[in-house]
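Hey, can you fold this one?
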Amino acid sequence: MTAVFVVLLAFLELALKAMGALRKPPPRGQRVFFWLSPLLAVATLGRVQPADTRRVICLFGRVACAVGCFLGAHWLLRRLAVHAGLTGPGPALSYVAAPLLWLGTGAFADLVRPLYLPFGRILPPVHDGVLGTRSLADFWGRRWNLWMSDWFRQVILGLCRRRPGLAVFAVFLWSGLIHEYVVNFGLWLVHGRNQFGSMLIYFGLQAGGLEFERAWLENHAWLRRIFAWVIVIGPVPLFLNEGLLRVLHFWF
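Sure. Predicted structure:
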């Protein structure tokens, strides 16, 4: 399942990269680097840093820390799940595994970043201080998967600049379709299990939550923080379903 997920993700990234390049081509001197990198949007190139000695040392330290944290958390949470009898389908397993999604995606991206040191450049992290989330808009726009959010800003938000409501709907609809393809389609291919629709529902809830936050919580900072985590984590069994749990090797 993990191998199929990576293959589907690779094809998806090439398609998204091509769509983004049609909207805004990479600069002439960075075209080769852009097409060979996992970055999806030209805007992300602005956060790429030169690979000086200090940054390289920090990068390898970050990689070791990220991978170690993921493996340690995976071992600990797996033992916890087995001890609690969470060895079958059910939402409880998704909640236990939720930290692994954050740690795993960050560790995977950090493992990829050193591959581009021969270019003399260091890719930016994929996440940025997720635990410091201040609101739902902050989580999706500035904290989680910045490589993807840069693409959304460049392609979808750029096309819908005059209709922000439509832009939000389009971003989360596209997010749902992407995850349906990479996760649920992959699960169906490998195991014949049909969980189509779960990702669309999850991201539809995020879109609705974002509109609620803007309409009712604009002047309530602490409520926005609490609300963000309720909306992101509350329906997480829809997102961290059997497909993603198998990708994370957390399905018993």
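Strands lie at 49-50, 121-122. Let me know if you want another pass with a different chain boundary.
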